[in-house]
Amino acid sequence: MEYVILVRHGESMTNRSGILSREMNKYGLTDNGIEQAKFTAYQLKSMNFDMIISSPVLRARETARIIANETNLKLKIDDRAIESDFGQYEGMHINEIPMKPREELGMETFESQQARMIDLIDSYNGRCIIVSHAFPIRAAISYYLNMDEQESFGIEIRYASMSAIDVKNKRILSIGSLLITDRIKKRFS
Ligand SMILES: O=C(O)[C@H](O)COP(=O)(O)O
């Protein structure tokens, strides 16, 4: 891939209820999340992409469909963009989960999420949008910043935000932005 914009889905019922879930067909976007996705789609419409790729999880698919409709891009579902695997804590409220490292809880590790996101980015050509989830997106960004989970802990990936990466030069152009700048638009013109 030459350039990629990593988009987090819009606000969903998981976020509003504090539930951690990678359920494929539950917890869609809230009305707020739909509006957030539409605003991101509106900005991306003025740029040139080859494809949009999405996590198979409903909230990401709904966000990607909104963007695909606005940009007339072909939408492809790719499991490598999926939400973190929460293991035995799937579907639980965030407050019910012990404050321990993911490894100790039997959840998918930061390294595993980073590896599958980078494998995904490196397996496509051209300029793409990838719709995924906060943690996998942060893990991918950390790869280009050469940071580990703790060092990148402060990176916030907001709903429907856009993180632009110049993949061929391994350079981060924006992190968790809600607005696309003109100089980033120029790279996708
Ligand atoms: O940050 C996390 O643990 C999750 O990635 C949040 O998931 P979401 O981006 O699907 O809300």
TrEMBL record:
| PROSITE patterns (UniProt xref) | PG_MUTASE (PS00175)
Q: Name one GO cellular component term.
A: cytoplasm
| SMART domains for this protein | PGAM
Residues reported to bind substrate: 8-15, 59
The active site lies at: 9 (tele-phosphohistidine intermediate), 83 (proton donor/acceptor)
What are the record keywords, sorted?
Answer: Glycolysis, Isomerase
Q: Does the keyword DNA damage apply?
A: no
Superkingdom in the source lineage: Archaea
Example of a GO MF term? phosphatase activity
Q: Which Pfam families match?
A: His_Phos_1
Cited PANTHER family: BROAD-SPECIFICITY PHOSPHATASE YOR283W-RELATED, HISTIDINE PHOSPHATASE FAMILY PROTEIN-RELATED
Q: What is this protein called?
A: Probable phosphoglycerate mutase
Origin species, per record, is Picrophilus torridus (strain ATCC 700027 / DSM 9790 / JCM 10055 / NBRC 100828 / KAW 2/3)
